[in-house]
Write a structure and sequence with these properties.
The complex is a heterodimer. Helices cover about 35% and strands about 25% of the residues of chain A. In chain A, a hairpin with a 2-residue loop joins β4 and β5. Chain B has one domain: ABC transporter involved in vitamin B12 uptake, BtuC, CATH 1.10.3470.10. Chain B is globular, with a radius of gyration of 20 Å. The chains are: A alpha/beta, B mainly alpha. Chain A: Pfam families: ABC_tran (PF00005).
Chain lengths: ~260, ~325
Amino acid sequence: MSRLVTQDLIINVPERSDGTALNITIEPGQVWGVLGPNGAGKTTLLHTLAGLNAPRSGQVLLGGQPLETLSRRQVAQMLGVVFQERLDGFPATVLETALIGRHPYLSPWQMEGAADYAQAEAALERLDVAHLRDRLVSTLSGGERQRVAMATVLTQAPSIWLADEPTNHLDLHHQSAVMALMAQQAAQGSAVMMCLHDLNLAARWCDHLLLLYPNGDACWGTRDSMLVPSALERLYQQRLAVVEVEGAPVFVPIKE
Amino acid sequence: MLARLGFPLGLLLLAALTSLVIALGVGSAQLSPAQIWQVVLGNLGYIGQDEGNALARTMVLELRLPRALSAFAVGGLLAVAGALMQVLLRNPLADPYVLGLSGGASIGALAAMLAGLGGLAISGSAFGGALFSTFLVFGLAHGSGSWTPSRLLLTGVVVAAGWGAVITLMLALSPAERLPGMLYWLMGDLSYARAPWPPLLLLLATCVVLMPLGRSLNVLARGPQQAAALGVAVRPLEWCIYIVASLLTAAAVTTAGSIGFVGLVVPHMLRLLLGNDQRLILPACALAGGTLLVLADTLARTMIAPEQLPVGVITALLGVPTFLFLLYRSR
């Protein structure tokens, strides 16, 4: 099981001062939530952790090794990314889409075998989209596509999950189901980090939080130490009311 | 999996062989498939050669076979190059000619013709022009760091328009007696294609080289970020595709002049029929593109025989309505 470590990491958000250097360790079994308003750099951070964006300074260690010394293939065998935006240039079916999660493990001449298909189909089943397996992805609803994207990464079976708003477009039941899947992955030894807009999902499912401010400032720690109403109000520039439901705090924006 | 690849490719191979037999048999003197078979056997030394077969032998081996094989190679090269460009630009409507390649090649060829050079010099000059245009477009689109498909496409379209103006200028300034040859070259002409083996070998080598890259291309078709996250070294792969596609187009243009629509229509039709697995689409493009051009060239030389039509006219006349129909139906 590999961990993800940032050393004095400053992400490269254009025209922004450096702000707080990030020194974070995401251990196997942990579920991290990244919170922040629009444009705070949540997606940029996730892409930097995945090695898709170069950092302004500092570095990311994956399994103890600097990310830039690893090949993309080695990275992909350890780390999976759920993107917020997906483009489909060419039509592809749901099963084909999930199956590309096996790409990092297959040699160039190798065809996908029965085991690969079984893994992809199990992932589709887990995300509740198995009945769509032969449909073209372009014909699906936003929420179904989101779940297919999750199924692709589940097929990839990484030990580190980086998910950019995995609950986007999902109805309430599937939001819970996806968060439960993330928690289950962590319980099985994966490390999970996801960007979330929904404070309450974060409060409920994450054990660590990272707050990103638009000016580049950041703070991080365990959930309970981070869920301070005054800090969250400063983060979102929004007054909040707090109530407790099932032992977890629920934040509601106050009408001005 | 193998059956899924094997069946369509087998059918296409059969179609390719049939098209070659038709191309060898049809013309000013018709030959039956049996006669062609005899020539083939005779040439391989399995049966003796008699006087009656000598004419057929010359016609098949020295006139029709090189031309048909050249047509096959050029069609295959253009279709594979088109399929690659479409993956690179993530746009199913991309075409090798869209990036100004054929324009550059045409300028090279026309300049050689204007200078009164022949044969090999025209081919070499066209090849140089195609590669020059490739690097011009890529260099300009690359410019300040990153290139996006839309930027590459726009640069290519603008450069192609520029080449078009220069071509018109050259035609306007050239002496009348050179015009027919130049126009034929611009519309694609296989009647001078006598050396089918270099483009054929290039086509075969490309298919062998691309097969192991097929799955990476499938992933790349889903966007560079998704591909990188799934373990594809995106930048080297994109350069590789671009250079290979440019080489293939340059080789095709050099052999037969500029022939449009094969690179656009063939991959598009195959994608509609066979899906988007590049491991299947690329070899299928080689076979189907070759078959299409062999048939188009056979039409070009027989329709108003003894006069010949430029094969580019035939592919455009077949390609434009087919493409418009597919586009209309896909909405």
